[in-house]
Amino acid sequence: MRVIMRRDFKLAAAAALVMSALMVITGCSKGSGDQGHGGMGNMPPPQVGVVAVQPQNVPVTFEYTGQTFGSKEVEVRARVGGIIERRLYTEGAAVQAGQVMFELDPKPLQAQAAAAEAEVATAEARAAQATREAARLKPLLADRAVSQQEYDNTVSNQQIAAAGLLSAKAQLQELRLNLGYTKVIAPVSGMSGRALKSEGSLVTTADSLLTTLVQLNPLYVGFGPSENEQNAIDRDVANGTLQLPKAGAFEVEIRGTEGGVLAKGGRLNFTDSRVSSQTGTVEMRAELPNPGGRLKAGQFVRVALHGAVRPNAIVVPQGAVLEGPQSKIVMTVGKDKDGKAVVAPRPVEVGEWATLDGVGGKPATKVWVITKGLAAGDQVILDNFVKLRPGAPVTPVSPEVSAAAQSAPAAQADHK
To answer: Does residue 136 lie within any of the structural domains?
Structure first.
């Protein structure tokens, strides 16, 4: 058995050598026949769409996860104790500032106010009597008909009566104020919350929360870059590769978690000077118009900040950036030793994505910001990547010409 296997192996090896020789001979004959005809099989180098990159100012959008909340979130509390007689608003509905939301039983305070009014009347009578007594003794003091001590006591009684009158009036004013507080009014306009106490419930000053109000127009949204993100922004600003809008006047828009603009035209109105020890972010807050209260408090959204610019940045269309074995690469047009155009892969370092507005009715373009690896004037290949290999000859054309050339065979096939 072992001998037979060796013979089979020798026969297979001999057959392989014969086939290899035939292939070499065939290849040589083809190669000699192709010389001077421009390439293998007389095929010209493939056309590739290229663009010469140039420095330009690129708008930058920063995007973060945020959560909405009301520009005013108010607890509606009773200022006095009592029994709730009526709830005068619809839960979850809009409420206007000054609108009565609850009414407490006013009768106990009305009785106290009546007693305070009687006390004021008594204090007024005492003060009038003391005033008359002082007026009566004053001429007698001049005639030495009364002693100085007696007159001084009378004047003191007059002053004490006047002070008692002021105290009684202050107590009456407080009771009248508390009587007015039996009507719990909305301090701000906003969307009402659920009533935490129903009619007939006892309200005390220690347990006075009745409901909440949230003002949704304008709307606030809180968000924040991480410490590393903020440090990267500060570093780019310091080295001149990023320019922020003056006075932090970003234009803010919020988007849904699944895309789509929910609100725009907002402005930053708060940036914390500290990094939160709990979240590791720099807390920021923006204010946006929200007519009709379409957006609710507590929604998770994407916050986009517009207005920053990268000056003199190198960008390429997103489709031109490929994943290499160790880094991202772009295919560029280089020159071989004979000066002919060939494919030259170039490793690059990328920054963020950006969107460039279309010119002359063309659609907007998604691009990569290239931070390292390309220079002004480099020709970047945009298409036909399947046909390319490093060092292969190519014919650079405009992207429009390349697109038309690629679409022509497909159109002919559809026609057939």
So the answer is: yes
